[in-house]
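Marked as duplicate of an earlier ticket. Keeping the data here for the record.
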Amino acid sequence: MFDYVIVGGGSAGCVLANRLSEDPSLRVCLLEAGPADRSPLVHTPVGALALVPRKHLNWAYNTLPQSGLNGRRGYQPRGKVLGGSSAINAMIYSRGHRRDYDHWAELGNTGWSFQDVLPYFKRVENNERGADDYHGVGGPLNVADLRSTSSVSAAFVEAAQQCGIPYNPDFNGAEQEGAGFYQVTQKNGERCSAARAFLTPVLNRPNLQVLTDAHTIRVVFEDKRAVGVDYLQAGLRKTVRASREVILSAGAFGSPQILMLSGVGPSTHLQSMGIPVLHHLPGVGQNLQDHPDFIFLNKSPSLDTFGISPGFTLKLWREWRRYQSERRGMFTSNFAEAGAFIKSHSLQPIPDLQIHFVIGMVEDHARKLLLGHGYSAHVCILRPKSRGQVQLASINALDDPLIDVNMLDHEDDLEVMVRAYKLTRGILRAPAFSLVRGKELHTADVHSDDEIRALLRQRVDCIYHPVGTCKMGQGEDAVVDAELKVHGLQGLRVVDASIMPTLIGGNTNAPTIMIGEKAADMIRQRRMLPENADQVDAAIRTNASQVAA
């Protein structure tokens, strides 16, 4: 018997396992469907190129055919390993815009404004630049500047400035807008995943048990109270019990899938699958959001990009030896070294577009290799209006869920993408690229708005930031409250990116880690204080204001 059972050893789950097991009087169990994070592909930054396009340590989901993408299926890599997607992602440390969190609070989610969440961002962080009003030191998650950057990435930053976009040394500081280099979750030239930061240092705690290759089947209920979890491990069905809470941290696809398999969700859908309805909660699986992304591909004569060529083979060997001896060079690259947050229109109050500049030609999510060298520029809409859903494909927990992102369904999203296309193309055609510019692939002969729209329908896809399927809020479509407790049930919370009511304007890993940190604080405060909501909420707010000190 454990006090807390956490389902999912990803970004939020690792944080929860660490923080809750700090109390030696509590017994904590963490279940992860994938293996331990021992692979060198996880810890070597460039290993992401091998992890993202295939099923090794990766759920590698495909979406349903997308009508807005000419019937194409989208691709959704998600980490299936301790550390979750933080073990296979591009390591970009980006929090989004402060307005995103203020909007959550305006929707009725007390305690989630930017001023409320900033202390938690700072507490988890060890920023190698040092502490200031926006950054912390001493936390488990190491945040660093890239140790080695490409001259082609520098050309992008210069080109953006030539197009009137200001240089920004810190996208997570006072202002988000501008172009610059991303900070990354790395330490000493190696990936600092959520597992490496939060879990590995505490695996020897006697009150913490971590079960890997443990695939959760369903939450076990007694009446309306969650009391445990059924899971599969080595072909055997097992049960683990929780005396206090079950916490789902299985992500925007996994958490709603587990809820529905447990009889919690839209009653009509559950009944159609033959699942007895324990609790009708229509918002489960709804409100799915992701950033629609278009990729520009350019050939380049520069060997300071990743590619396939005889000359680069020798360079790669030298870079590997440098990485082995110094933990520097191209093997420390996150590929998406530079980027920008910009406005699609001058009337936009905050940036609504993000660019990831990649020092390699990334075609079909790196599942298709291109000969030669080049670079890519991803541009995505930060706050799309399209909404999708996650549903069950079957009652078998081992089957992938049905994922419908509904990409470019809202006509406004397509029109913003047209403006995003034009702005990004302008940067890539700026003088700073003159020495490294080669042939444009796919875009050279696309000029009119109608041609751009047709190309967008043909090539846009997700950028792996799914959120929203267990929405935080109070309305009929909400799944959890502001303390992340599932509405209408006891002993059950959801703590991961699925609780975001709206998509944040940036990469989602850092916000998910923040959600885990804040949730752990709320759980500890709720456990320690009398069951008086006003007292508890006041104590949590007071504690949050002191966190950064």
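See parent ticket for discussion. The longest helix spans residues 509-528.
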